[in-house]
Amino acid sequence: MSKITRRDFINGTLMAAGATMLPIGCTSDTVFDTLDPLYYPPSLTGLRGSHPDSNTHSHARAWNKKSNWGATTDLKETYDLVVVGGGISGLAAAYFYQRKYGKDKKVLILDNHDDFGGHAKRNEHTIDGQLRIGYGGSQSLVEPKHGSKAVHALLKDIGVDFERFNTAYDKNFYQRNNLGAVTYFNKETFGVDKVVKHPFCNYPNYVEGLLMGDKLTNEAAAQQTPLSKKGKEQLLRVLNGGLHELNIPKHKLENYIYSNSYFDYLKNNLGVDDPRVLRMARNSGLDWALTGTDLMTIGTAKNVGAMGFVPKEVYDEETHIFITSQMVMLA
Ligand SMILES: Cc1cc2nc3c(=O)[nH]c(=O)nc-3n(C[C@H](O)[C@H](O)[C@H](O)COP(=O)(O)OP(=O)(O)OC[C@H]3O[C@@H](n4cnc5c(N)ncnc54)[C@H](O)[C@@H]3O)c2cc1C
Predict the structure, then answer these.
(1) How far apart are CA 221 and CA 137, in angstroms?
(2) Residue ranges of the chain with pLDDT lower than 50?
(3) pLDDT of residue 62
(4) What is the tally of structural domains in the chain?
(5) How far is C-alpha 182 from the chain's CA centre?
(6) Is residue 90 one of the residues assigned to a domain?
(7) Pocket test for ligand 1, best of 9, 138, 287, 314 (most atoms within 8 A of CB)
């Protein structure tokens, strides 16, 4: 396994972050040294995402057509490869490059954020003197055994051990603590803060071990939601709905569900027009698809376990959740 130090990464990522406040003629080490030693992005908490300033320049370019960026700083450094973007793709590209052309090759990775990792960053917390590393975005290697040869070789090279998951992840945690999937309705949107013991969609299947069985019936759950009477009726229709609501001959069904919209199905076949029910339905595939179900066909919505479709396992049988390679690298 190759040794990549934190400083190797930090040096590159912070160089871009600090470039604007540098004296002319400095090096990336100077940048590192000008930063507050306590400045450590992985320990920052909260929903950070694209933090303030990360898009200042790109927005100025895109929205205000700014093209004059003033004086530049000559870092007096040369690189064999410059990678723009320190997400997992950029980091992998840099790694592949060094593997192919030699470890002596110098690579500069630029990023417009204060830490590397992109959508697969990590968070670090020190609890009772122990360092805990958690994910700051991407959490799993989905179906890792189905990855390409290049992906497998990379993961092996940087020390990701697939089998480790089986002993490292406490699969019985939820069962032991009688924890099941619930849904939280917030006051801002639904008028009252309320928890209903029903997942309403497929997200529990992304968390291995979370109990599915101990939930309310569809009828009882719909009744407990803070929706109007009409909304509750519509929600129940969605929960009890499914492909049987479509009056389409069996041999044409597959083609139909992949060429017709899930939202049209909700509105036209199930008569849903309550904005709060539509909102619940819209968000019910986010976890898997990162997009609203209003952009999905019925078939896609069914596959991701959107509201009204029986939750089903979406990951392969062998493996469910793996900490990301980045975390393993740093551990
Ligand atoms: C909340 C969340 C959960 C996820 N969960 C999973 C999961 O469980 N399993 C899974 O497989 N996938 C998951 N994903 C998706 C996965 O994280 C991404 O597909 C993956 O991280 C993308 O990597 P990337 O390097 O291609 O892009 P990115 O991670 O987006 O990296 C791009 C990098 O480029 C930088 N950049 C952009 N523009 C510029 C610029 N102009 N100059 C310099 N730098 C720039 C960005 O800051 C970023 O660091 C999840 C994503 C999110 C957001």
Answers:
(1) 30
(2) 1-7, 9-22, 314-331
(3) 95
(4) 1
(5) 20
(6) yes
(7) 138
